[in-house]
Design goal:
- With 462 residues, the protein is an alpha+beta fold.
- The chain contains 13 helices and 17 strands.
- 30% of the residues lie in helices and 24% in strands.
- The strands form three sheets. Strands 7-11-12-17-16-15-14-13 form an eight-stranded mixed sheet, with helices on both faces. A five-stranded mixed barrel has the order 1-2-3-5-4. The protein has a three-stranded antiparallel sheet with strand order 8-10-9, with no helix packed on it.
- The radius of gyration is 27 Å and the shape is elongated.
- The structure holds 4-amino-1,4-dioxobutan-2-aminium adenosine-5'-monophosphate and magnesium ion.
- 4-amino-1,4-dioxobutan-2-aminium adenosine-5'-monophosphate binds next to β12, β16, β17 and α13.
- InterPro entries: Aa-tRNA-synt_II, aa-tRNA-synth_II, aa-tRNA-synth_II/BPL/LPL, Asn-tRNA-ligase, Asp/Asn-tRNA-synth_IIb, NA-bd_OB-fold, NA-bd_OB_tRNA.
- Homodimer.
- One of its GO terms (biological process) is asparaginyl-tRNA aminoacylation.
């Protein structure tokens, strides 16, 4: 007989038909005559109740049915007599696939702290909370591909190993096959990278944007969706050393079009979650953040406030608020500033534009004022920056002038600069941090809890 996943079983009528169900024991309780096993297979947050008439089973077998064990159960699917349960399986046959010794199984008890579960990241998907988060994560990844596919964007795979530092922040993880205990040196005593695997110094990418721009200048509209790596030593609840980023890049889009796309994209993803992840969202709302679902609706129902950086600074200075990092024109906003604008001043998401060029990357389109660039950051409640993007500098002369001003080398960037020599065009794009989106959609407070295996400073165990 075909075994059904619990999500499918729970939709069936209670006809008493024979079913097969397979999953992991969440709890076992009962009395001397009967046991109730809550079985979960990860297909949904709900468990199915298995009722076991103890007189029909061998004691030896039942002793193996403990929290964490994996079972196959055969029996009729019937209406549950207990209140609050819709359906249950009356066990006729139980096979124990794998035991889980109660003395050593780490998730024996319920209600572990998130800190404890982070130490057990290899097992935490077995909990209700992480099951819900990972299902929502999947749904969001699917919705992202669907969103772009429906709108004629092509998925472009950009390289993970690169020789160029897109964001110019220098926070890259080097990739090398050189023997670190015996490095080849040139005449000046510097490491001789010509002997390295790629014949030059390489690193893991911080962004797929530069290659994404080449895609936009040939296919029109592309997006990337892949892992990115940043070796910043930032131990915050919003930073990972390895995170996933979605980067659309569009020919013929100016900053206005870019903002419109970013707002529509985020709203579409949130709507998809509300429509398709209802049970998991309700679970997260109940367990972790009772304002979650309301906040998701709130974002859908409000236009994002569009605002110049300069005005934003004026609002912050006039706020009378004592910030940990005081802020003046030219400063890079901290999340305390971003959240003040969003949560307290405008009470809605904000798109902040036209930042000082000194605090933004070299590729952003320069404004006439000579001081600002056509950058845009989308700021969200509870998160701060969720998207960073810009219109790109399409003019060869201006781009080169900026590269020189910053003292950057053109050795690694010549291919990028060439796009401005042959058939340049206005174009724009942005990057959405996938885990920041998931923080918002799941209501979790720490980015380590929305990715299966977080990579943070001093943590790459499993
Ligand atoms: O603002 P960022 O650095 O922009 C770029 O990388 C551009 N190349 C994007 C583009 O225009 N195509 O990063 C974009 C987003 C941020 O807004 C944030 O959501 C996320 O990526 N992000 C991080 N998420 C988790 N951990 C980190 N260390 C992150 N750094 C950035
Ligand atoms: Mg940014």
């Amino acid at each position: 007989m075909k075994s059904l996943r619990i999500v499918e079983l729970l939709r069936l009528p209670a006809t008493g038909d024979q079913v097969v169900v397979k999953g992991w024991v969440r709890t076992k309780r009962g009395n001397k005559n009967v046991a109730f096993i809550a079985l979960n297979d990860g297909s949904c947050v709900a468990n199915i109740q298995v009722v076991v008439d103890l007189s029909k089973f061998d004691e030896e077998l039942l002793r193996k049915v403990t929290t964490g064990a994996c079972l196959r159960v055969d029996g009729p699917l019937v209406e549950s007599v207990g209140s609050g349960q819709g359906l249950e399986v009356q066990a006729e046959k139980i096979e124990v696939y794998g035991t889980a010794d109660p003395e050593t199984y780490p998730l024996q008890k319920k209600g572990h702290s998130l800190e404890f579960l982070r130490e057990k990241a290899y097992l935490r998907p077995r909990t209700n909370t992480f099951g819900a988060i990972l299902r929502i994560r999947h749904a969001m990844a699917f919705a992202i591909h669907k969103y772009f596919n429906d709108r004629g964007f092509f998925y472009l795979h950009t390289p993970l190993i690169t020789a160029s530092d897109c964001e110019g922040a220098g926070a890259m993880f080097q990739v090398t096959t050189l023997d670190l205990n015996n490095l080849p040196k040139d005449e000046q005593g510097k490491v001789d990278y010509s002997q390295d695997f790629f014949g030059r110094q390489t690193a893991l990418t911080v962004s797929g944007q530069l290659e994404g721009e080449l895609g936009a200048m040939s296919l029109g509209r592309i997006y990337t969706f892949g892992p990115t790596f940043r070796a910043e030593n930032s131990n915050t609840p919003r930073h990972l050393a390895e995170f996933w980023m979605i980067e659309p890049e569009m020919a013929f889009y100016e900053l206005e079009d870019n903002m419109e796309l970013a707002e529509d994209f985020l709203k579409n993803l949130i709507r998809y979650a509300l429509d398709n992840c209802q049970e998991d969202l309700e679970f997260m709302n109940k367990m972790w953040d009772d304002g979650l679902i309301e906040r998701l609706h709130f974002v859908l129902e409000h236009d994002f406030k569009r605002l110049d950086y300069t005005e934003g600074i004026e609002i912050l200075k006039a706020s009378g608020r004592k910030f940990e990092f005081p802020c003046d024109w030219g400063c890079d906003l901290q999340s305390e500033h971003e959240r003040y604008l969003v949560e307290e001043h405008f009470k809605r998401p904000v798109i902040l534009i036209n930042y000082p060029k000194e605090i933004k990357a070299f590729y952003m389109k320069q404004n006439e004022d000579g001081k600002t660039v056509r950058a845009m950051d989308v700021l969200f409640p509870k998160i701060g920056e969720i998207i960073g993007g810009s219109e790109r500098e399409a003019d060869y002369g201006k781009l080169m002038a900026r590269i020189e001003e910053l003292g950057m080398s053109t050795d690694e960037l010549w291919w990028y600069i060439d796009t401005r020599r042959w058939g340049t065009a206005p174009h724009s794009g942005f990057g959405l941090g996938f885990e920041r989106l998931l923080l918002f959609v799941t209501g979790m407070g720490n980015i380590r809890d929305v990715i299966p295996f977080p990579r943070t400073p001093k943590n790459a165990d499993f």
